[in-house]
Amino acid sequence: MKNKSWLLGLLLLAWACSSPEKKAETVAEVPVKPYPTFSADSAYAYVQKQVDFGPRVPETEAHESTKNWLLDKFEGFGFTVETQDFEAMTYDGLTWNLSNIIASYNPQASKRILLAAHWDTRRIADKDTERIDEPIDGANDGGSGVAILMEIARVIGTQELKPEVGIDIILFDGEDDGEPEGTEMRNNEQDFWWCLGSQHWSKNKHKPNYSAYYGILVDMVGAKGSRFYREGYSRQYASGIVKKVWDNAHQIGQGDFFIYKDSPEITDDHVFVNAFAKIPMIDIIEFSPDFGFAQYHHKHSDNMEIIDRRTLQAVGETVLFTVYQE
């Protein structure tokens, strides 16, 4: 994903406003519904497994093996699973066969929550100083979000305590293959080369007239020292959901990770879900309003050495808690 403020003008729902930065906010205490335990050890193992497959670049053996593993795991958790297979053009003119993976719990429920991440990884390390043309492990950028949603699915599928709403987990493909750092490659056929899977799904939903009460996207949510700020598009499209999730994090003791401070707009999968699918979706993403993306971003240092169970726990428990409060 890229920080593209110009995209705001292309989208239907954008408006130029954001809430002022606040150093602290009062979190209203509300009755808490019981919720099961999120296991950071389990999530960590799911990150490791993805990395062990190798970089999950589309059209590679590692990508195909990872897809089959993901499908088997979600089915084993008792979710209804399907793929949305499609073709998309890359920034350098390739035609890729891509697959969005969709796993649903309680598909008959009318009230639904959409949880999303991307499962592909970047085929170049364009921010690195060596091995620039080689793909990255994507332990955090891709792997961590998938792992958290897998652990949430495992908990829902194996624990007696169930959420009262339907859950749809979508793992978008082709998110991280935009043009290299410092270049712009667009033509009349396609305005935007990032987030290919969410662009396709948002215009071609897996079920006609599908909708959800709201959505949560998790991206780069497992690195040591991560802090999560209120991203710009999330505030513009779904400010109430941002408040809900950040307040929930503070209520369950994860406030050190979820900071009551605004950050700029980040073009990520949630932008297209908001603009085209008309579902209010927020993005939990590591992007500092002061320093931008972390040092590992699109580098070979995005490997297992930066993954921290504490960060996985903070994000995973917050999302799990939020789902179980509906």
TrEMBL record:
Question: Mind telling me what this protein is named?
Answer: Peptidase family M28
Extent of the signal sequence: 1-24
Recorded hits in PANTHER family, A to Z, give:
GLUTAMINYL-PEPTIDE CYCLOTRANSFERASE, GLUTAMINYL-PEPTIDE CYCLOTRANSFERASE-RELATED
Record-linked Pfam families: Peptidase_M28
In terms of superkingdom, the source organism counts as Bacteria
Annotated coiled-coil positions are none
Q: What is the lineage of its organism?
A: Bacteria, Pseudomonadati, Bacteroidota, Cytophagia, Cytophagales
Going by the UniProt record, its keywords in alphabetical order are: Acyltransferase, Signal, Transferase
Span of domain Peptidase M28: 100-321
Organism of derivation: Algoriphagus winogradskyi
